[in-house]
Amino acid sequence: MLAAAGFSGKLLVRCVRTLPPYAVSPSALCGVAYYRGKKTPANSGTLIPSRAASGAHYATGEARQGKLVRNGEDKKAVICIEGNIASGKTTCLEYFSKTSNIEVLTEPVSKWRNVRGHNPLGLMYQDPERWGLTLQTYVQLSMLDRHLSTITRPLHTKQAPKNTSRRNTTVVSAHISASWPTVALEHTAKTSAASQEARMHCACSAPVRMMERSIFSAKYIFVENLYRSGKMPEVDFAVLSEWFDWITTNISIPVDLIVYLQTSPQTCHERLKQRSREEEKVIPLEYLESIHQLHEDWLIKKSSSPLPAPVLVIPADQNLQEMLHQYKENRDKILTASSL
């Protein structure tokens, strides 16, 4: 599976020091959070510690002794942007790609739509019981490849094959509701080779990697939802779980911070209707409500699956301008994730 994932770089077993558990002030429960000793406003993002705060290690981010690690990759801080469908993840990535020296990796949706001419994403939405295992096996593989990737591109120079998702082309658009105006970032294809090379070097040398979702949410949210809803047979769930457990046990997948864009299912549903992506036309409100509850159980209540890192919660029901203000307010918290 490693070879199939493009895991061609050198592997080595390393011992990595254990980081101290992240702590947060109890006053965060009263609307005032403290981040690295500094008070933060109640309307800004709220930081939630993982179970490490009670003395246990993070699920994957710390106790990495004996695991396979890509040479040098664990030095880069990794931030995962999590949230429901249409919660605003692409817009968040666009903001930080334009304002910060970071490496951005979007979900490989174009791959899920075209596997040697087949569209497992579309098939899964049409018949999840038949195609759920097929899609989620490939999602798990492609997300592992994202985590281990050393080939980096800035978001605004990412090229995509023909007939793929608009989010992966050189014109990056987020079509959401009327209160969330269309965002279109257009970049000319006539950029000089020297300029492109400079941007590539910038991304490769960036101290922070920001990812859209993660291998953890693929398993803890979307696979779990298929299983709980009765659309994935128990044997399929068991096979995917065995793969996931082997991966996270034997391969180091460090995550330094999870940014949770907490959005109501109703808001997500309205945005979905506005952006009109073909596969998403069949998504009902009930599906978004299930995905929302799984995010809440995992990232807020911490009652379902292990957290790989601390969680920064950003309310994301607001319009575009208010969200850009939120990202600016929380920028330092997010980009200093490696110092936690």
What is the CATH third-level topology name? Rossmann fold
Rg over CA atoms, rounded to whole Å, is: 19 Å
Number of strands: 12
Structural class: alpha/beta
Largest sheet: 6 strands, mixed
Number of helices: 11
Q: How many angstroms does the end-to-end distance come to?
A: 32 Å
Spans of 5+ residues with little confidence (pLDDT < 50)?
A: 1-42, 51-64, 151-202
State the oligomer.
single chain
Strand order in space, largest sheet: 4-12-11-6-10-7
Give the ordered list of helices and strands: EEEEEEHEHHHEEHEHHEHHEHH
Strand portion, in percent? 5-15%
List keywords for this structure.
single chain, 340 residues, alpha/beta, Rossmann fold, 6-stranded mixed β-sheet, two-stranded antiparallel ribbon, 15% strand, globular, disordered N terminus
Q: Can you walk through the features of this model?
A:
The chain has 340 residues and is of the alpha/beta class. The protein has helices spanning 89-99, 109-113, 120-126, 128-148, 193-204, 215-228, 234-250, 265-275, 285-300, 320-329, 331-335, and strands at residues 11-13, 33-35, 38-40, 46-48, 68-70, 77-83, 102-105, 171-174, 183-186, 208-212, 257-262, 311-315. It has a single domain (11-150, 206-339), classed as P-loop containing nucleotide triphosphate hydrolases (Rossmann fold). The strands form 4 sheets. Strands 4-12-11-6-10-7 form a 6-stranded mixed β-sheet, sandwiched between helices. Helix 4 packs antiparallel against helix 6 (215-228) and helix 4 packs parallel to helix 7 (234-250). The longest helix has 21 residues, at 128-148.
